[in-house]
Specification:
Largest sheet: 5 strands, mixed, barrel
Shape: globular
Radius of gyration: 18 Å
Bound molecules: hypoxanthine
Structural class: alpha/beta
Number of strands: 9
Oligomer: single chain
Strand order of the largest sheet: 5-8-7-6-9
Order of helices and strands: HEEEEHHEEHEHEHEHH
Length: 278
């Protein structure tokens, strides 16, 4: 029998890490901008650099580390991705979502997505957090294109509840405990790497998006296909282009993400604790 090449590559990666670490995570956490050093607060129980895994996509963004970190957060076994690869770096979608799929094979049941995103909704401010309720991923190629790997999920995956309601409530409860307002909305993924034009931002708003970014939705599609429970939080690092007088820069995005990082970390930690309590 000829194996699906995507599934075959995934399995090869899995075999190569299985030998290195037997850790069985419950939660897979993808660290977005601002959360890059989230893992520093926890005792590492193992790490695997992406380049140690043969054929694994390695991020090309300057300053982005690329490794899996295995640790416990509030007693919950977690695998963190410090550094993700983006579609705009030139990788095929099947490689972009490979790490997400791999963490499911390691044993993760919950995928916790984080990112920095541009606010499209005029009610949002830079530095806000947005819990992702739903998404628009159809501006980027689906990671499910090509022969379906039946081992992973069905050909025609249901996307009616990508973001798990119970997990959403845990995020709301965590924000309430912290005494912070949390926005809720729809995340729309574009390819990037350029930021949007003002007309594109208007388009996103008309289509029902509240935030726009260059990651996350494709990972959620692949994860939902595999049967993960998913939740996600965007750090609104800026209002999207054309909504303010300021031109946009990666520096501004990074600075805002860094400024609210302590709150972001607390929100993530509290939510993971609740995930552990079920
Ligand atoms: N647009 C797209 N991606 C982003 C933005 C933005 O304004 N800010 C952070 N990531």
């Amino acid at each position: 029998m000829t194996m699906n090449p995507v599934y075959e590559k995934l399995n090869r990666c899995y075999e190569s890490i299985r030998e290195k670490i037997p850790f069985a995570p419950e939660v897979a956490l993808i660290l977005g901008s601002g959360l890059g050093d989230y893992a520093d607060g926890f005792a590492e129980e193992g790490t695997i650099d992406y380049h140690e895994i043969e054929g694994f996509p390695v991020s090309t963004v300057p300053g982005h580390k690329g490794r899996f970190i295995f640790t416990h957060v509030e007693g919950v076994p977690v695998v963190m991705m410090q550094g993700r690869v983006h579609y705009y770096e030139g990788y095929p979608m099947s490689d972009v979502v490979l790490p997400t799929r791999l963490m499911k094979l390691m044993g993760a049941k919950v995928l916790f997505l984080t990112n920095a995103a541009g606010g499209v909704n005029y009610d949002f401010s830079a530095g806000d957090f947005m819990m992702i309720k739903d998404q628009i991923s159809c501006f980027v190629p689906s990671p499910l294109l090509g022969p379906n790997a039946e081992e992973l999920g069905p050909r025609f995956a249901d996307m009616s509840h990508i973001y798990d309601e119970t997990l959403q409530q845990k995020i709301r409860d965590s924000a309430a405990e912290m005494g912070i307002q949390i926005q809720e909305g729809v995340y729309l993924q574009l390819t990037g790497p350029a930021y949007e034009s003002p007309a594109e931002v208007r388009m996103c708003r008309i289509l029902g998006a509240d935030a726009v970014g260059m990651s996350t939705a494709c990972e959620a599609v692949a994860a939902n296909h595999m049967g993960y429970k998913i939740c996600g939080i965007s750090c609104i690092s800026n209002l999207a282009c054309g909504m303010t007088e300021q031109p946009l820069s990666h520096k501004e995005v990074q600075e805002t993400a860094d400024r609210v990082a302590p709150l972001f970390k607390e929100l993530v930690t509290k939510t993971i604790k609740k995930i552990g309590q079920r």
